[in-house]
C-alpha cells in the first residue's frame, strides 16, 4: 500500500510531455490562433505561426521568444494565405516543415465568418470565398502536412477549429455559407481520421461558441449579450469565458501522445449553449 501514491503519480499525464512538440497554427495573427500560440509556447512547444499579416506574426513571435527561458527561438512566423492556390500552400507547408525539421501538430484555425446575407441575397462570390478559406484551406493544409507526417513515419495530430454553427442543432439566418462550411469541416474531420489512422495521425475538431478575445471585444461590450446569455446558457460563467484556458487546455490534451486513441471527434465547447437546441427551459 505504501507504493500506491507513486504508482498513481506514474500514471498521471503532465503538460511537460508537450515540450519540443512542433506546432503549425494557421490564422495565428489574432484571436484564437494568437492565444493558442502563446499558450503552447509556454508549455515548451515550438510554434510556426502562420497567417497573411506578417507584421502581426513577427510581433507575436518576438513576444514568445523574448519571454522564453529556452536558449533557442520557440516561434517563427510563416506568411500564408490559405485561400491561395494549392501549389502556394504546399510550398508554405514545406517551408514550415524544414523550420524545425518536422511538424507534430497542425491546428487549422484560420477561417472567416463571411457575409450575413440571407440565402436569397448571398452571392456566388461570397459563398465561394467562405468555402475557399474555411474548407479548401483546411483540406489542403491537412493534406500536405499529413503526407509529410506519413512519409517521415512520425504520426501526429491535426486539430480543426470549427464552430457550434456546424452542429446540426444550431441554425441561424444569414449563416448559410458559414454554417455549411463548418458542418462540412466536421465530415472532413471524420473522414480524414478514418483515412489517416493507418499512418498514426489522429484528427479531431473543436466546435466553440463565442469567447472573449481580441476579435470579440466589441461584442462583449454589448449590454444585451449578458442578458441573453444568462437566460439561454446553462453555465453561469459563460459570459466571462476566455480562450485560455477554455480552449487551450483541450488543445493541449489533443496534442499529447497519450491521446493516441482519441480521433474522429467533434468537441463542443459552449457552456452548454447548444444542449436544448432552443431555450425551452427559460424565457427570453
From TrEMBL:
Coiled coil: none
TM annotation in the entry: none
Origin superkingdom: Eukaryota
InterPro entries found in the cross-reference section: NAD(P)-bd_dom_sf (IPR036291), SDR_fam (IPR002347)
Molecular function via GO: oxidoreductase activity, acting on the CH-OH group of donors, NAD or NADP as acceptor
Similarity comment: family membership: Belongs to the short-chain dehydrogenases/reductases (SDR) family.
PANTHER family recorded: 3-OXOACYL-[ACYL-CARRIER-PROTEIN] REDUCTASE FABG-LIKE (PTHR44375:SF5), BETA-KETOACYL-ACP REDUCTASE-LIKE PROTEIN-RELATED (PTHR44375)
Protein name: 3-oxoacyl-[acyl-carrier-protein] reductase, chloroplastic
Native source organism of the sequence: Heracleum sosnowskyi
